[in-house]
Amino acid sequence: CSSCEYTCVGSGNLKKHLLSHNVIKPFNCLKCEYACTLRGSFERHLLIHTGEKPFKCTKCDYACTRISNLKRHLLNHSGEKPFQCTLCEFACKERKRLMKHLLIHNEKPLKCTLCNYSCKESGSLKKHLLNHMGEKLIKSPSCEDSGKLKTHVLSHTGEKPFNCTVCKYSCTVRGSLKKHLLIHTGEKPFKCTKCEYACTGIGNLKRHLLTHTEEKPFNCT
């Protein structure tokens, strides 16, 4: 996605995701600021607040909020490995493991921007870049961003080490994860001093304050 950090394997999933960036989001949660364009997404979100886990395993105590998670879990009981490599006998339970395996058969697609080094895994590229640059503040030769190396290198490797334990969200910056978690906790730390409005982001609060000042900072050119 060109607007956020979302990635997927199918164009259909991307098209569905892009709807989340539309201005009109008719399904609004009454307990937090979550809003979306699809009823199914809204119903799944509500499970966060109710704590309900409607999809239950018949062989153990496992329960979850998504049918896809239950299907993956059931593979632990059946031993089935539906994702098979067409080039060798490798088979696994998850698509992402198969995609990682396929790199063995391919060339090394990840390349260092500072030397001729190339590798198959983002973790290896990250370690290599650290050898080049140490723990210094740098300016990358492949983009205009600067900052602490460990955080910046992730923008090139595609690795997202900060993962939400409630949903599939992941990101490269700890601050982004903290902000995301507010969706699940319902906490709204940014409060208006002139009314009861509260929200999860400082940007939203600034926009809200304009309703009190009647200021209109954006002018048509």
Features:
221 residues, alpha+beta, Double Stranded RNA Binding Domain, 4 domains, two-stranded antiparallel sheet, 8 helices, 14 strands, globular
Describe the structure.
The chain has 221 residues and is α+β, with helices and mostly antiparallel strands. It folds into four domains: 9-52, Classic Zinc Finger (Double Stranded RNA Binding Domain), CATH 3.30.160; 53-126, 2-Layer Sandwich (Double Stranded RNA Binding Domain); 154-186, 2-Layer Sandwich (Double Stranded RNA Binding Domain); 188-220, no CATH class. Helices cover 38% and strands 14% of the residues. It contains eight helices and 14 strands. It has helices at residues 11-18, 39-50, 67-78, 95-102, 122-133, 149-157, 174-185, 202-213; strands at 27-28, 35-36, 55-56, 63-64, 83-84, 91-92, 110-111, 118-119, 137-139, 146-148, 162-163, 170-171, 190-191, 198-199. The strands form seven sheets. A two-stranded antiparallel sheet has the order 1-2. A hairpin with a 6-residue loop joins strand 1 (27-28) and strand 2. Helix 5 (122-133) packs antiparallel against helix 6. The two termini are 29 Å apart.
Task: Please tally the helical runs, counting DSSP H or I stretches of 4 or more residues.
Answer: 8
Enter the CATH topology name of the largest domain: Double Stranded RNA Binding Domain
- Please indicate the count of domains: 4
Alpha-beta content class? alpha+beta
Mean pLDDT across all residues, rounded?
Answer: 77
The succession of helices and strands, N to C, reads: HEEHEEHEEHEEHEEHEEHEEH
Beta content: 5-15%
Protein name: Protein hunchback
Pfam family, one: zf-C2H2
Family: Belongs to the hunchback C2H2-type zinc-finger protein family. Belongs to the krueppel C2H2-type zinc-finger protein family.
GO molecular function: DNA binding; zinc ion binding
